[in-house]
Here is the input.
Amino acid sequence: MKHDSYDDSYLAGILNETKTIALVGASPNPARPSYGVMRFLLSRGYRVVPVNPGQEGKEIHGQTVYGTLADIPEPVDMVDVFRASDAVPGVVDEALALDPRPKIIWTQLGVRHADAAARAEAAGLRVVMDRCPAIEMPRLSHLLARRD
Here is the structure.
């Protein structure tokens, strides 16, 4: 799949079916984008599991932080990546090792890695790169189901 643009229905479908999100690179610092996006996703009814080895065992927005994806004690639907592009292959490796696997790899604004995306897609995962769900959700609100 090309990752330069996405059909609105593709993004809305992902956001509608997702219930649990592992947020890799979560930060307790209110100045960091991951902090605000995590708060936004929680306010929209998603279960968000923060992942950051430097914060393991602490809490962000009342949610326990895990060191790795493998440490999360429940299945996740989406892995949302707030890391540099060169970290994406490792995150994809971690996601592909999970059982069950997540359905989606989503990388944040400015985060792209074509080879890692191709590996994830070859394994049956859907990929969104260089997008932010906190931007896409308001834009696609007319296509999204209510999450009460």
Remarks:
- Strands lie at 20-24, 47-51, 59-60, 63-64, 78-81, 104-107, 126-128.
- The mean pLDDT is 96.
- The longest helix spans residues 33-43.
